[in-house]
Amino acid sequence: MYVIPLVLFIFPMLAFVIGVLGRALLKKLFIAPVIVFGLSLLAQLLYLHFSFFTWTLIYTALAFSGSIIAHFLLLKYQPSRKVQKTGVIILLGSVLIPALIFTISRPVNAVLMEKKVENHLREEEYSSSDIYSIETFYDGKRNTNRTEPVIAEVVFTDDPGHTYRYIELKKKKQVVQMCEYERSPNFYTNEYTAERPHMVKGCFE
């Protein structure tokens, strides 16, 4: 799942809905904005760039707006318990369904990327016995207009000491080998070397 639709559409909607739910269920104005701020900040630190902090403030403001609107609507109309219950169920559904999709998307994308890398290696005339392992991980910094955010690390049977990274190009929908590799602990380089027998010269930098 792409980050841009999440940041621009789904997250703002969730923040506003959480604000409404916070006021309706917890009877407090500030609890939901604090929760949204904390979750957004945590997401920024774990997955996203520091520039995401602007969006953290926007989501917090939206959550507070939702709380304010819910506060005045509840005071003005004083809906019955049945109406409140129905509204809460609808709002919870609008929060949980996108959240579930977002949660499931990463493991699904990881499995899909693993299959794509397997197919790519078969096209490069590798057999299943040539591949020792394929592991995938999510890298938010790679989620650009050029590449997808899921990276696959491949270890070949005849070269267990080296790991080769693969990534998918967005526009071409093509899996390519990355030049980047770890030469020494925490030191990465793109330099081509014959010491890595499966490294291709036309790798992606």
From the structure above, extract its key features:
single chain, 205 residues, alpha+beta, 2 domains, two-stranded antiparallel ribbon, 4 helices, 6 strands, 53% helix
**Mean pLDDT across residues:** 86
Helix-strand pattern, N to C? HHHHEEEEEE
Unreliable stretches? none
Strands of the largest sheet, in order across it? 1-2-3-4
Structural write-up:
The protein is of the alpha+beta class. The protein has two domains: 3-78, no CATH class; 110-189, no CATH class. The chain is built from four helices and six strands; from the N terminus they run H-H-H-H-E-E-E-E-E-E. It has a four-stranded antiparallel sheet with strand order 1-2-3-4, covered by helices on one side. The protein has a two-stranded antiparallel ribbon with strand order 5-6. The longest helix is centred in the middle third of the chain and has 43 residues, at 81-123. The radius of gyration is 23 Å and the shape is elongated. The relative contact order is 0.09. Pfam families: DUF2651 (PF10852), DUF3139 (PF11337).
What is this structure, in a nutshell?
The protein has 205 residues and is an alpha+beta fold. The chain has helices spanning 3-26, 31-46, 53-77, 81-123; strands at residues 131-138, 150-156, 159-169, 174-177, 181-184, 187-189.
Secondary structure blueprint with pairings:
Blueprint: H1 3-26, H2 31-46, H3 53-77, H4 81-123, E1 131-138, E2 150-156, E3 159-169, E4 174-177, E5 181-184, E6 187-189
Antiparallel strand pairs: 1-2, 2-3, 3-4, 5-6
Helix pairs in contact: 1-2, 1-3, 1-4, 2-3
